[in-house]
Amino acid sequence: MFSIRSIFRPQQLRPSSLFSLHSSYSSSTSASAxxxxxxxxxxxxxxxxxxxxxxxDVYDSPLLDLLFHGALVHRHAQNFREVQQCTLLSIKTGxxxxxxxxxxxxxxxxxxxxxxxxxxxxxxxxxxxxxKEAGSTRFxxxxxxxxxxxxxxxxxxxxxxxxxxRDMGIEVCCTLGMLEKxxxxxxxxxxxxxxNHNLDTSREYYPHIITTRTYDERLKTLEYxxxxxxxxxxxxxxxxxEAEEDRVGLLHTLATLPxxxxxxxxxxxxAVKGTPLQDQKPVEIWEMIRMIATARIVxxxxxxxxxxxxxxxxxxxxxxxxxxGANSIFTGEKLxxxxxxxxDADQLMFKVLGLIPKAPSFPEDEERSFxxxxxxxxxxxxx
Length: 383
Ligand code: SF4
Prior knowledge:
Elements: H1 4-7, H2 17-27, H3 33-44, H4 52-59, H5 63-77, E1 82-92, H6 121-133, E2 138-143, H7 152-167, E3 171-175, H8 181-190, E4 194-196, H9 206-209, H10 215-227, E5 231-233, E6 236-238, H11 244-255, E7 263-268, H12 285-298, E8 303-306, H13 315-324, E9 328-331, E10 334-335, E11 338-339, H14 343-353, E12 356-357, H15 370-382
Parallel strand pairs: 1-2, 1-9, 1-12, 2-3, 3-4, 4-5, 6-7, 7-8, 8-9
Antiparallel strand pairs: 10-11
Helix pairs in contact: 3-4, 3-5, 4-11, 5-12, 5-13, 6-7, 8-10, 11-12, 12-13
Bound molecules: iron/sulfur cluster (SF4).
C-alpha cells in the first residue's frame, strides 16, 4: 500500500535546497494562499477535495508570489525542463451544428471557414509522419462534430487512423465531440492515448457561451473516457468575457474530478471575425500566468498546456508561462483553423530556454497512473 507521499514522487530533478529556500522565504513574509497551498501540495501530493474558496485564494495571490509557488510545485512534481510537443490537425473542418460562441467552425456564424469532409487516411498519415519528424510526440485529430453518434463509417475510419498512428510510436489523441460509452471503449481498443474534451469555462458562465449541449453532457463524456482507461485532456478558454470567478470555477471543477485530467489545456481566446466573440479584447500574459500557476498548484501532476493564443506571446512571455508551470504546447502551422507559432521559432525557443522535448509515454507501458493512485488515496484518506 502506497502512501500519498511515496506515490507523489518527485522527478530526478528535485532540488532539495528549494525546500529550505521555500521555508525561509515563507517565514520571512506573511504567507500567501499560493505559498500555503503550494507547501501542502508538495507535502501531500495531488488532492481532489479542493474548495472553491481555496482555489480562489490561490488565484488571487500576488502575481509574482503565485508565479514563484507555481514554479516550486512544478519543480517537485515534474521534470521542469521537459515540454511535451503535440500537433493538432483538423481532420474534419467546419460545418459544425453547435453554437460555441468562440468557434469559427460553427455553421451558425459567417467566418469564411468552409465545411470539409473527413480527411483521407493518406493525408492524415502524411501529416502524422511530418509531425513526428518535427519532434511531436503526440498527434491529436480534431473533428468539428457535436458527437460521433450516427457517424459509424467516419468513426470506423478514425479508429483505423488511431491504430496506424499509434503504430508509428507516438501518442494519439482525438477530439471528436461527445462520446458514448461504447465509442470510448472502441477508441481505447484502437490504442488511443488521450481524448480531449474541454469544459471551456465555469458551469455558471457556460450557458453564455454554448446553448446546444450542457455542462453535464460534457462531464459525462469525460466520465466515459476515464472509465475506458483513456487519459483525459480537459481544460478551458479564457478571454470569453467571463469573470475571474469563472476561471476559478473552471479550475475547481477540473481539480475536484475523481481523478485529475492528465492534460489541462489553458487557451487564450483568439477572437475570430464573424463569431459572437469577435470583439473580445486579447488576453494579457498576466492572466495566462495566473491561470497556469494556479492550475499547477491545484493539479500538480497534470500536463498544463499553453494552448491557443500562444502565437500572440513573445518568447520571454512564454518563458514566464513555462516557469509558472506550463509543460506542454501545440506545435504545427495551425491550431485547427487558427494560426500557431512558427516551427523554427519554437525550435529556437527550446534552445534558448534550455527546454527538452518530452518523450512519448503509453498507458499500457506504465504500471499504473500515478495520478489515479494519488486521487484515490486522497479520497480514501478523506473519507
Ligand atoms: S468548438 Fe467544436 S463543437 Fe463547438 S462549434 Fe466548434 S467544432 Fe463545433
